Amino acid sequence: MFLCFEGLAGGGKTTQANLLADYLRRTQEKEVFVSAVYEGEARKRVSDFMHASGIASDQRAVMFLFQALHAAQHRGVSDALDEGKIVIADRWRDSFFAHHLYQGTFNGDEDLMRQIDQLAFGSLEPDVCFLIDVPAEVAYDRYVQRERRVEDKGLELMGPEYFSSVANYYRKIAHDKHWHVVDGTKDQQSVFEHITSVIKKDV
User: Fold this and answer.
1) Can you give the pTM of this predicted structure?
2) Of 9, 43, 111, 185, which is most buried with the most CB atoms under 10 A?
3) What are 134-164's pLDDT values in tens digits?
4) How far apart are CA 180 and CA 193, in angstroms?
C-alpha cells in the first residue's frame, strides 16, 4: 500500500503522515516507511548545501537538485514496496508541477515538465492520496512562523500570491485525480479521524 499527502507548506502534511505511520504500525503490524525529501534533518542538510554551493538563488538549479532528490525518493519508495512495507510519502510528483508552473521555470512547457517528471518518478503512483486543504492565507501564516522558528537558512520566503497559485493547482489536480480532500483547518484529531476513516476502507 502506497499512501501520499499533498498540499501547501504549513498545511500539516508531515504531522499527519507521522500520526498515520504510528497508527498503521499498531493496527496492521507491518513495517511502515515514511518518505520525505525536505523534512527534518534532511531539510537542514539540503538547505545548507544549496547555500554552500551557491545555487539557492538560481531557480533552475534548485529545481534540478530537487528532481535528483525526487529520483532518490522514488528508489527508496520502490524498494520499500518491494519489501512489503506500507509506504507514506510526504509529497510525491505533483508538487513539482504545483510549484514550477507558477514560477515559470519552463515557460509553461508542460510537455517538457512531464518528461523531467517521468525521469524522476517513472510511472509509480500512490494507491491513495490525500490533499490537506488549507486556505492559502492560513498556510502562508503558518509557513512564515515555521521558517522564523526553524532558522535553517531555507529558501526565501514564498509570498501570499505564490501560496494562492499553488493552492488552486492542488485543488484542480485533486479533483482530476480523485484524491481525498481533507479540511486542514480543523483540529489535528479531526483531520486524523477523517484520514483513518478513508484508510480503514482501503487497507
Assistant:
1) 0.90
2) 9
3) 999 999 888 888 777 655 554 555 788 889 9
4) 13
Specify the CATH number of the domain 2-202.
3.40.50.300
E strand spans, the chain: 2-6, 32-35, 86-90, 128-133, 180-183
- Sign of torsion, CA 54 62 69 88? positive
Q: Which long-range contacts (CB under 8 A, 24 or more apart) does 98-103 make?
A: 98/6, 98/166, 98/169, 98/170, 98/173, 99/166, 100/63, 101/165, 101/169, 102/162, 102/165, 102/166, 102/169, 103/59
Q: Which amino acid type is present at position 22?
A: D
pLDDT of 202 strictly over 80: no
Give the residue among 156, 164, 145, 175 at the shortest CA–CA distance from 8: 164
Distance CA 101, CA 98 (A): 6
Compute CA distances 77 → 2, 69, 194, 202, whole Å: 8, 12, 25, 19
Q: Which three cell numbers stand for residue 111?
A: 510537455
Boundaries of every domain in the chain: 2-202
pLDDT for 59 equals 85
- Single-letter residue type at 51: H
Q: Take residue 67 and report the three cell numbers written for it.
A: 528532481
